[in-house]
């Protein structure tokens, strides 16, 4: 039964009517690439039963989106294969479509949309999806509804976005109990949805079989065809749940003290779930649920919440410092970025959103002499004088990710070694979105913009280039951490790389 309290997650995309003559309720997956723990699907099921119409779940992969590559395409197609298997098991009608050079989305989607009574889609506030939703709303003859399944708290429940985690945190804590109680369905099923036998399946749908992925990749174009999938890095819900299970056992018990340590993957204590969260293959709600229930010594319920720690980054969710630390990252810091976009949806955010003190600081030091200046191409090929920075860049290119702490250092140094803040931003945005599996996301921008002073405070002493913006150095990083195993790991990746510019 759908909770009325979750209706706050639903907003109208247009003012058009529900078409009684329509053949189906149409849920277009654009961001939440999963069936379980999905408010968009929950609401679609509710509407199918309410209007007594079949439900069609449609998922698409476009070819030539900005920064597209075989790396990202394969990850998405692997996800579709998992969703296809889940849909078959649960009895849902699922139509996956993958654009190729022979068949575009515009070729099949108009005829499909004409048959809909209502279209429901995911309310993702970043990248090309807001503009895509606006165009879809105009094109449709029927009502478009957008559903927020981005986090555990409904983003519409906040009156505005926030410039600091310390300001958002108490508001998130206040909303947590109701949001937790009103989580989405972990096991949605098709029982009670009218029969879909009369619906005509469109041509050129993807089979949902993993053995067909390779042939589809060969028929897809992309912006960066040279950026290949990372060997061993799999997309899809099954892989996300496997990694999450491993993290609960091997990472979470050590998270608060060891998450920042740069290490080889087999010794890292972070979750590796960021790409799967970005593509919606795993839900924040299910992660929160399992993390809170992971301590065998405590039977967790909302009564365990310690309200004396309201607004603090420790102690609120659970007696375990590891659980608190992880959930503060997953909820507070993640929602900071999603709210920034949700309250003003757009393709990107840039330096214009920086707090006034940071903008003034950058402007005051715009003319400062840079000891080193590199082009974007030199950054991309890891040709700087700094072996730690080069290692982080190589990790990004070769694995599609950067270790959490080094990602901050990576961003700070691009600012220090670029001719201007604007060029540094463009370099960071392009390199991150081009190579990172979790790029093109609200948290990509909060991470990049944090390097320029967003969501932070002024620091002393005032420095060249940065002014009062927080400074980070490779020297202090090398003293803070034992980097030898990490650097050896990066060298081993280089030896296996097929990319010529690291040879």
From TrEMBL:
Domain of life per record: Bacteria
Cofactor(s) needed for function: FAD; (6R)-5,10-methylene-5,6,7,8-tetrahydrofolate
E.C. number(s) listed in UniProt: 4.1.99.3
Keyword Ion transport applies: no
Reaction catalysed by this enzyme: cyclobutadipyrimidine (in DNA) = 2 pyrimidine residues (in DNA)
Entry keyword Flavoprotein: yes
GO-annotated biological processes: photoreactive repair
Occurrences of domain Photolyase/cryptochrome alpha/beta (ranges): 23-155
PANTHER family: DEOXYRIBODIPYRIMIDINE PHOTO-LYASE (PTHR10211:SF0), DEOXYRIBODIPYRIMIDINE PHOTOLYASE (PTHR10211)
Protein name, as recorded: Deoxyribodipyrimidine photo-lyase
């Amino acid at each position: 039964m759908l909770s009325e309290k979750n209706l706050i997650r639903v907003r109208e995309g247009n003012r058009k009517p529900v078409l009684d003559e329509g053949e189906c309720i149409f849920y277009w997956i654009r961001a939440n690439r999963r069936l379980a723990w999905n408010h968009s699907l929950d609401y679609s099921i509710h509407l199918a039963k309410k209007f007594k119409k079949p439900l069609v779940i449609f998922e698409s992969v476009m070819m030539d989106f900005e920064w597209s590559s075989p790396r990202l395409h394969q990850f998405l197609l692997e996800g579709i294969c998992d969703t296809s298997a889940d849909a078959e098991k649960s009895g849902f009608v699922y139509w996956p479509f993958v654009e190729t050079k022979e068949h575009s989305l515009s070729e099949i989607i108009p005829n499909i949309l004409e048959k809909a009574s209502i279209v429901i889609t995911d309310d993702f506030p970043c990248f090309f999806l807001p503009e895509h939703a606006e165009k879809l709303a105009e094109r449709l003859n029927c009502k478009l509804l957008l559903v927020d399944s981005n986090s555990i708290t409904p983003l519409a429940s906040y009156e505005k976005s926030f410039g600091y985690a310390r300001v958002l945190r108490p508001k998130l804590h206040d909303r947590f109990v109701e949001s937790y109680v009103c989580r989405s369905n972990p096991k949605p099923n098709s029982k009670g949805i009218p029969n879909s036998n009369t619906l005509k399946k469109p041509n050129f749908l993807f089979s949902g079989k993993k053995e067909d992925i390779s042939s589809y990749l060969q028929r897809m174009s992309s912006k960066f065809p040279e950026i290949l999938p990372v060997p061993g890095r799999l997309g899809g819900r099954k892989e996300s749940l496997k990694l999450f299970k491993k993290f609960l056992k091997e990472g979470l018990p050590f998270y608060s003290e060891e998450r920042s340590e740069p290490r080889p993957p087999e010794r890292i204590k972070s979750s590796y779930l960021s790409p799967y969260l970005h593509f919606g293959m795993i839900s924040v709600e299910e992660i929160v649920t399992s993390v809170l229930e992971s301590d065998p010594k405590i039977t967790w319920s909302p009564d365990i919440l310690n309200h004396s720690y309201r607004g603090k980054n420790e102690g609120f969710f659970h007696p375990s410092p590891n659980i608190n630390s992880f959930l503060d990252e997953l909820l507070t810091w993640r929602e900071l970025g999603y709210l920034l976009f949700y309250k003003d949806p757009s393709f990107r955010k840039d330096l214009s959103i920086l707090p006034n003190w940071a903008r003034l600081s950058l402007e005051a030091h715009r003319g400062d002499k840079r000891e080193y200046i590199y082009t974007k191409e030199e950054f991309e090929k890891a040709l700087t004088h700094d072996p730690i920075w080069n290692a982080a860049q190589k990790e990004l290119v070769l694995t599609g990710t950067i270790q959490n702490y080094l990602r901050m250092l990576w961003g700070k140094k691009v600012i220090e070694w670029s001719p201007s803040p604007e060029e540094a931003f463009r370099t960071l945005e392009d390199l991150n979105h081009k190579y990172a599996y979790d790029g093109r996301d609200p948290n990509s921008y909060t991470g990049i913009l944090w390097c320029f002073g967003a969501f932070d405070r002024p620091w002393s002493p005032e420095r060249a280039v940065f002014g009062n913006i927080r400074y980070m150095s490779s020297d202090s990083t090398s003293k803070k951490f034992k980097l030898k195993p990490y650097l050896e790991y990066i060298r081993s990746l280089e030896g296996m790389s097929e990319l010529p510019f690291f040879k």
